[in-house]
């Protein structure tokens, strides 16, 4: 048999850096996310790939769906995970239930409202804001006034405004929205599994979260759930969902959310399915109430440690503080970057500054998933002490 | 310190299936993809997560970019990977360079043209087809006639039409497209790394591929590259790219493709970055010419084995056959599903039927990445023999 090789030539050569071995340091991720994965989740990731329609894959997807229904506390059948990051959860929520020309009312209390507005504008929707003071949630009274004024088709809010560490209470908003004919989207990227959340009893229409925060799976696969009212709206749209990749009328069929056979839509990442399945299994084993209490205990221990050091919590009202993200005001005369660098250098602990409107004003610490333990709180405080000491030392040496 | 616990209750309980251990069988994936990952890639996936803006992550992204420039054979600076499956590569290509009201000419030679049309319609574009006979590529003469008739802004074609196993020659199409003022998108999802491909010297404007085929990384992260002409068009659009998630003017900044600082856009999946980096490192070590020859040798060995068994290759002209996907006509009186089931049961080897227009007509075998070796060809033929024997046996027992 003659192969009849022709001359294969290349015009461009490979990079030298790529030919060096992969080295990945192990860090303790205590910024607002991603958080660390458990050993069990990491171990699951090395399993060989499965095909996107293999029965084993479909079974794991079913288990994920059940795990998500538990995590969201919902019976919604249109519950699945999008093969993309949490950003896509936001864009898919809006893209499915918002039509061109409709109005979306965005509760803007930090970074995420601006991002939702950017996406909504691209969809041809009309954006109205209910803007709050940074770190202070919107009240039902404010919201009702805004609903009367703007008559939106959709309301968007972030349960965990990670740019400020503020928790927006959700209870009561769903029924109010529905009285005014609006559907409610809630972003729980930085809260789900750490803060109590009840999609069904709070009458939330669309909710999504991040896989890489409290749940402790890798990023890149985004849990989302639609209420029967949201599902109805999607199937009754005047225009097609502009993006096939997250058109729920098609993606929902791949995930077995409707009657009828499962259909090929895209090649799901088996690796991320393994990781998310194991993360949800760990949550189901621990149970939500225990996870909620564990996160609360960690946050209280951290807040106590911060107070003892004379550091000022950014959110003044304890009722509005998230347990997953604890922000403090940057102390006077401290260069935050030096604190962050020293914590990483000496302890491999990640801390973070502000984001968007809080940039340069606050430092944010994350207590999510496997990192919400007394051990991690103490490690974090230790790293913070060393970081602050280093920043003061540098300051002094410059005087 | 009093915790002041309130009563945490849940309304819905976790699923029993989720509480069982994860079991993932090891299969040899010899359908048109995903293919198997190498041990080196699988090992890389279990590294702990890194943050999306950590210096180590940004360095790995730079290495991936260099590896992709090599794999695509391009110097395009706007070369990166989208955090989503290959489907999103197609939708992002169209979404970035096609504006509402513009015409896209789709070379339709199987399944992928239909999908590109679906996406283009959602973008508000006007779709025209150059349709070919199944398994036969379009010629430059056909294409020029279509360009004269339709005057499209964009041409879309699949280099590897995986639904038929047909290879569409690309050389010559780029310059022809440009003479008519059109930009050229090429889908290399099922070919890149296995078939020679030269983005720059073939004057391709947008090219994307799948991570999970020849490259041998997990799915969920999709390499894509834009020529300077494509980049220019994106920055000069009259309308915004409708999707922020894959708007290259923003995503390109996160990947360091333009001058200026790198900016947060979404939380990239460190796990998939590790896997893709290692897959590209392995390709760079092997070199493209050797990888191309290895895939060709495997395909020739498989074709020879099929001929010896009296099986008929679906693509009659050897010049139009892909080396990565080898399809045969389903032999008379054979129930394909039985062949596929027996190959999986007895050998854990995955075979596939047709897709879309070839459904029920052909069987498809994939030789991609680590599976393009003589050992795997022989394993595949062995599984095929057993599958065919089983299907004949069942047939006989029914008579």
UniProtKB/TrEMBL annotation, chains A, B:
<dbReference type="GO" id="GO:0019265">
    <property type="term" value="P:glycine biosynthetic process, by transamination of glyoxylate"/>
</dbReference>
<feature type="modified residue" description="N6-(pyridoxal phosphate)lysine">
    <location>
        <position position="213"/>
    </location>
</feature>
<dbReference type="InterPro" id="IPR024169">
    <property type="entry name" value="SP_NH2Trfase/AEP_transaminase"/>
</dbReference>
<dbReference type="GO" id="GO:0005777">
    <property type="term" value="C:peroxisome"/>
</dbReference>
<dbReference type="GO" id="GO:0008453">
    <property type="term" value="F:alanine-glyoxylate transaminase activity"/>
</dbReference>
<dbReference type="InterPro" id="IPR015424">
    <property type="entry name" value="PyrdxlP-dep_Trfase"/>
</dbReference>
<dbReference type="GO" id="GO:0004760">
    <property type="term" value="F:L-serine-pyruvate transaminase activity"/>
</dbReference>
<dbReference type="InterPro" id="IPR015421">
    <property type="entry name" value="PyrdxlP-dep_Trfase_major"/>
</dbReference>
<dbReference type="InterPro" id="IPR020578">
    <property type="entry name" value="Aminotrans_V_PyrdxlP_BS"/>
</dbReference>
<dbReference type="InterPro" id="IPR000192">
    <property type="entry name" value="Aminotrans_V_dom"/>
</dbReference>
<keyword id="KW-0663">Pyridoxal phosphate</keyword>
<dbReference type="InterPro" id="IPR015422">
    <property type="entry name" value="PyrdxlP-dep_Trfase_small"/>
</dbReference>
<protein>
    <recommendedName>
        <fullName>Alanine--glyoxylate aminotransferase</fullName>
        <ecNumber>2.6.1.44</ecNumber>
    </recommendedName>
</protein>
<keyword id="KW-0032">Aminotransferase</keyword>
<dbReference type="Pfam" id="PF00266">
    <property type="entry name" value="Aminotran_5"/>
</dbReference>
<feature type="binding site">
    <location>
        <position position="364"/>
    </location>
    <ligand>
        <name>substrate</name>
    </ligand>
</feature>
<keyword id="KW-0808">Transferase</keyword>
<comment type="similarity">
    <text>Belongs to the class-V pyridoxal-phosphate-dependent aminotransferase family.</text>
</comment>
<feature type="domain" description="Aminotransferase class V">
    <location>
        <begin position="45"/>
        <end position="353"/>
    </location>
</feature>
């Amino acid at each position: 048999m003659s192969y009849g090789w022709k001359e294969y030539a290349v015009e461009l050569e490979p990079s030298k850096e790529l030919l060096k071995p992969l080295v990945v340091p192990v860090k303790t991720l205590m910024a607002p996310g991603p958080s660390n994965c458990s050993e069990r989740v990491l171990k699951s990731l090395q399993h060989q790939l499965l095909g996107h329609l293999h029965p084993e894959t479909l079974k794991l997807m079913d288990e994920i769906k059940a795990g998500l229904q538990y995590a969201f506390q919902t019976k919604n059948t249109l519950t699945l995970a999008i093969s993309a990051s949490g950003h896509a959860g936001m864009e898919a929520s809006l893209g499915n239930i918002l039509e061109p020309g409709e109005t979306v009312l965005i509760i803007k209390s930090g970074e995420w409202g601006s991002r939702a507005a950017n996406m909504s504008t691209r969809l041809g929707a009309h954006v109205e804001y209910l803007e709050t003071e940074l770190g202070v949630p919107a009240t039902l009274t404010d919201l009702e006034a805004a609903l009367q004024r703007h008559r939106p088709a959709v309301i968007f809010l972030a349960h965990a405004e990670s740019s400020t560490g503020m928790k927006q209470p959700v209870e009561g908003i769903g029924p109010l929205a529905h009285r005014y004919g609006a559907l409610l989207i809630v972003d729980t990227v930085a809260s789900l599994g750490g803060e109590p959340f009840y999609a069904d009893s709070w009458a939330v229409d669309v909710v999504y979260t991040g896989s890489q925060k409290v749940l402790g799976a890798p990023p890149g696969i985004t849990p989302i759930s639609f209420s029967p009212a949201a599902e109805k709206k999607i199937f009754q749209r005047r225009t097609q969902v502009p993006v096939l990749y997250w058109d729920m009328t098609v993606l929902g069929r791949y995930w077995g959310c409707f009657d009828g056979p499962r259909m090929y839509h895209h090649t799901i990442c088996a690796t991320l399915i393994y990781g998310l399945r194991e993360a949800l299994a760990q949550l189901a084993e621990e149970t939500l109430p225990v996870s909620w209490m564990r996160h609360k205990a960690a946050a209280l221990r951290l807040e106590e440690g911060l107070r003892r050091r004379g550091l000022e919590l950014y959110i003044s009202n304890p009722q509005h503080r998230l347990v997953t993200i604890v922000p403090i005001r940057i102390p006077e005369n401290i260069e935050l970057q030096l604190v962050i660098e020293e914590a990483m250098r000496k302890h491999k602990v990640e801390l973070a500054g502000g984001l968007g409107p809080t940039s340069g004003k606050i430092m944010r610490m994350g207590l999510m998933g496997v990192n919400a333990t007394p051990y991690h709180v103490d490690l974090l405080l230790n790293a913070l002490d060393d970081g602050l000491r280093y920043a003061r030392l540098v300051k002094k040496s410059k005087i």
